[in-house]
Structures are given as structure tokens and as C-alpha cells.
């Protein structure tokens, strides 16, 4: 399975519509890939909080339409990153979209863990409640977004639901890039799964982005890593390696759940 991660430079001088057109063209060019992955909130920038409300779209808005058409034109599975979704009956959501090679919506995932510590995204957007997996011919994807990476129980839930490839879109800041790499490898090792983590380049609302999108195999080996700027990271994966790893080193079978709480002495 060939995966292409498109690490987009979210330039503050580029309009949302111009960026949408540019990214659509980039996706359309990935005809040799089976799966294409985009970053989190690439239309606005993950830290451009003041733009969330003004640039929010309905689920089937302009980004949805552009990405559905691009997936169909390229004939690829497309994790289209996430958009600020405006729910007519509720709050805004940070919503990731996954399209099939025919351009049909295969899944929508509303980000569960919102970043900001009582400000920013944490107060401007609602929290999702549902884990999301997507069955591809070669593998089953588990979908997560940015800050989710810090919460291993979410990924355990995805693995329990059948995920073999964990796909994460992000707008991760440069000042915490060491955590990005460390956590991506940790999620791969502990879940014996591929991790495909696609971030942004550039600067969002004055916050420099980490870039360094990364692909990690089930043993924790980094198969490919981007640099700091805009880049398309393409890597060939062997989906059978997940089952082989879990058979060779069956740590997941040794999980003990439902333990008694600690005694207070």
C-alpha cells in the first residue's frame, strides 16, 4: 500500500479559497498512491482561532466538495484532514473527513480531545464522542486528530475496533516537536500498528509549525519523515506486517483489563 502525506504550508498571506484550490490540485496529482493524508484544519490553520467561526463550513461544504472530487479524480482513499465544521443544530466541531476512491464520504470524525486548556479550540469547538475506523481493501484505518495523540486510551479503543493503521492529521507546534516524534513512535509500538501522522508547515497565527510528518511501522521504526517545509512524503507499506508483528510478539494478548482499584492503607 502506498501512502502519501501532504504536509501543507499554511501561509497566512494565502486566502482560504486559494489554499483550497492549491491543495485540491496536489491531491489530484497523487494518482500513484492508494491513500493520501492531509493535515488538521489546513484551510484556516489550527491556531487561527479567530477564523474558526468565520471560515466554518457545513459538513458538505466547499472543502467537502473539493476533496470528494479530488479523491475521485485521483482514484485514491483520501483522509482530507479536518475542517471547522458548523453544525446547524450545535457548536462548531473540528471534523476530519475520509473519502473513498469514488468520492463518497467514508467517514467523518469529530475530534474528541480539544486543545487549549479552557481557551482556544477547547472553548470554541464541541467535543466528539465516537471512535471512527474505516475499512480499506488493504488495512483498517483508525482516525485521530492532533491533541488526541497524547491520549493512549483512544488508540487502544481504535485497535480494539480493528484498526491496523492509525492515521493522524495535526497542526502541531514547533516548540513541542520532540513530543510529536516520541508519541507517534509510542502509539505505534504499544498498539503494534502503523502510524501515519501528517502535520502542517508554516506559521498559524504567529505559532510556528513543527512539520516533520512521520510514518512509523508496528515495531516503532521510522520509515519516513518530512522536513520543516511543505513536502509530500510518500512511503510504501506492507499491511501484512501488522499481523506478523502481533503474532511474533503477542503483547496485546497479555492485556489485563478490569483490575481492582488500589487499596488505601
UniProtKB/TrEMBL annotation:
Keyword Hydrolase among UniProt keywords: yes
Residues annotated as domain CN hydrolase: 1-239
Cross-referenced PROSITE patterns: CN_HYDROLASE, UPF0012
Keywords: Hydrolase
GO molecular function, one term: hydrolase activity
Keyword Hydrolase: yes
Pfam families to which the protein is assigned, alphabetical: CN_hydrolase
InterPro entries for this protein: C-N_Hydrolase, C-N_Hydrolase_sf, UPF0012_CS
Recorded superkingdom: Bacteria
Cited PANTHER family: DEAMINATED GLUTATHIONE AMIDASE, NITRILASE-RELATED
Family statement drawn from the similarity comment of this UniProt entry: Belongs to the carbon-nitrogen hydrolase superfamily. NIT1/NIT2 family.
Protein name: Carbon-nitrogen family hydrolase
Species in which this protein is naturally found: Streptomyces hyaluromycini
Taxon lineage: Bacteria, Bacillati, Actinomycetota, Actinomycetes, Kitasatosporales
